[in-house]
Amino acid sequence: MKNSSAFYSPALSAIEMLESFINDQKKVLPCSAFLDGEYGVSDLCVGVPVRIGSNGVEEIIKLNLTKDEEIQFKNSVNAVRDLTDKCKKLLV
C-alpha cells in the first residue's frame, strides 16, 4: 500500500490543507466540515468544498447541485448520520 495512491493521496491532501492554513492562502479544497444548516444539514461533519485560511475553515462553499446530485448527497449524509448514530450507541 505504501506505493499506491491510497497511501499518498491522504497525505498530500493534508499537506495542502496545512499549507493553506499556515500561509492563509484561502484555497478552496474538499474537506470534511461540521455543517450548521449548510446544504440543509446540521450537527454533522460531511465532505464539502471549503475555503481554508489562517482561521481554519473560513467558508463552506455552496454548490448548485442538480436534483440527482442532491439525492446522492442526501443519501451520503444519511449514511454518515446512521454510522455516527451507531458509533454513539457504542459509547454509551
Question: Helix- and strand-based class?
Answer: alpha+beta
Sheet-strand content, in percent, reads 25-35%
Under the CATH scheme, which class?
Answer: Alpha Beta
Low-confidence stretches: none
CATH superfamily: Lactate dehydrogenase/glycoside hydrolase, family 4, C-terminal
**What is the total number of structural domains?**
1
Write the H/E string, N to C: HEEEH
Question: Judging from the principal axes of the Cα atoms, what is the shape?
Answer: globular
Strand arrangement in the largest pleated sheet = 1-2-3
Tell me the distance between the termini. 35 Å
Architecture (CATH level 2) name? Alpha-Beta Complex
Helix count equals 2
- Mean of pLDDT: 94
Using the coordinates shown, work out and report the CATH topology. L-2-Hydroxyisocaproate Dehydrogenase, Chain A, domain 2
Cα-based radius of gyration, to the nearest Å: 15 Å
Number of beta strands: 3
SSE topology sketch:
Layout: H1 5-22, E1 27-36, E2 42-53, E3 56-60, H2 67-91
Antiparallel strand pairs: 1-2, 2-3
Brief characterization of the structure:
The chain is an alpha+beta fold and 92 residues long. Helices cover 47% and strands 29% of the residues. The chain has helices at residues 5-22, 67-91, and strands at 27-36, 42-53, 56-60.
Task: Write structural notes for this entry.
- With 92 residues, the protein is α+β, with helices and mostly antiparallel strands.
- The chain is 47% helix and 29% strand.
- The protein has two helices and three strands.
- A three-stranded antiparallel sheet has the order 1-2-3.
- The N and C termini lie far apart (35 Å).
- The model has no long low-confidence stretch (mean pLDDT 94).
